[in-house]
Amino acid sequence: MSAVTAGGEVSTKKIILLRPRGFCAGVVRAIDVVKIALNLYGAPIYVRKEIVHNRHVVDELRGAGAIFVEELDEVPAGVAPLVRAQARERELQVIDATCPLVTKVHLEAVKFARRGYTIILIGHKDHDEVIGTLGEAPESTTLVSTVEDVDRLEVKDPTRVSYITQTTLSLDETRDIVERLKQRFPQIQGPAAQDICYATENRQVAVKAVVPLCQMLLVVGSQNSSNSRRLVEVSHKNGVPAYLIDDLGEVEEQWLEGVNTIAVTAGASAPENLVQDLIQSLQARGYEDLQEMEIKEEDVRFNLPSELARSGRIQLQPVAR
């Protein structure tokens, strides 16, 4: 379908579908862990916190027999939750589904704490990942979220300061905070490789590449998904309106008024079927021209947790989607 512009020119309505988008290797691994555990041990499987930040995925797993709890005291003794330290004390069977890239940050926190460093954690307060990282070395770690937070920092020894970051942050915002940390603490130590995960970075880079070509961005993802919210922010900062939607039902007609080119992407915890449903809905609204724009090929695989291998009933295989 075509639209006529004010100047009388014919403009085709189109969709630019970004790649990479959607599930990262860590999310694939986490979902697989729950599904495999259900197959091995049967329902119920107790999962502490949402396994991924996506309502549709959580609802699907809940329907298959997973029970999501906030704290361990909600778990009856003798069943298999996906959690670690406290669960072992209660003699519960444990499968750790933490993304290996988040585990990397945890290990960095432990390493710096053992060396006597003050650890500056860059992240968002109350995010589950940040709560977990703070728990690795609570006496040594201070959370900052903005450059202004850095300016207010007071540390015991300015020569022994380190920083780590949440894996799902905005690249640009994190860069500004790190630069300010280096200005204040010239001897600060950081991770050998950046903590922001490959999937978060790739999806943000793709958004930056597409904003000059579109008039609006739709991001498929849940409101509690940090990496999805960052995609919206990146688009806004580059001058293009963007909306975070759980599914096609949240698209409002007024968003589409005067918009001929829509870019579509998905956060790292959003399933592809929701993206395809959105595309079909937009095509039915007249956005018939579909173009896929690939910025970077992803081929990352993570092994399943060793706890599943120790069950003796499954062989570890790399997983990727």
Q: What would you say this structure looks like, in words?
A:
The protein is an alpha/beta fold and 321 residues long. It folds into three domains: 2-23 and 198-294, Cobalt-precorrin-4 Transmethylase, domain 1 (3-Layer(aba) Sandwich), CATH 3.40.1010; 26-98 and 301-309, Rossmann fold, CATH 3.40.50; 100-184, Cobalt-precorrin-4 Transmethylase, domain 1 (3-Layer(aba) Sandwich). It has eleven helices and 13 strands. The strands form four sheets. The protein has a five-stranded parallel beta sheet with strand order 11-10-12-3-13, sandwiched between helices. A three-stranded parallel beta sheet has the order 5-4-6. A three-stranded parallel beta sheet has the order 8-7-9, with helices on both faces. Helix 2 (55-64) links the parallel strand 4 (45-48) and strand 5. The longest helix has 17 residues, at 25-41.
In short:
The chain has helices at residues 25-41, 55-64, 85-89, 100-114, 128-134, 147-151, 171-184, 198-210, 226-237, 272-284, 306-309; strands at residues 2-4, 10-12, 14-19, 45-48, 66-69, 81-82, 118-122, 141-144, 161-165, 216-220, 242-245, 261-266, 289-294. By secondary structure, it is an alpha/beta fold. The strands form 4 sheets. Strands 11-10-12-3-13 form a 5-stranded parallel sheet, with helices on both faces. A 3-stranded parallel sheet has the order 5-4-6. Strands 8-7-9 form a 3-stranded parallel sheet, sandwiched between helices.
Any chance you could write out the topology, listing elements then pairs?
Layout: E1 2-4, E2 10-12, E3 14-19, H1 25-41, E4 45-48, H2 55-64, E5 66-69, E6 81-82, H3 85-89, H4 100-114, E7 118-122, H5 128-134, E8 141-144, H6 147-151, E9 161-165, H7 171-184, H8 198-210, E10 216-220, H9 226-237, E11 242-245, E12 261-266, H10 272-284, E13 289-294, H11 306-309
Parallel strand pairs: 3-12, 3-13, 4-5, 4-6, 7-8, 7-9, 10-11, 10-12
Antiparallel strand pairs: 1-2
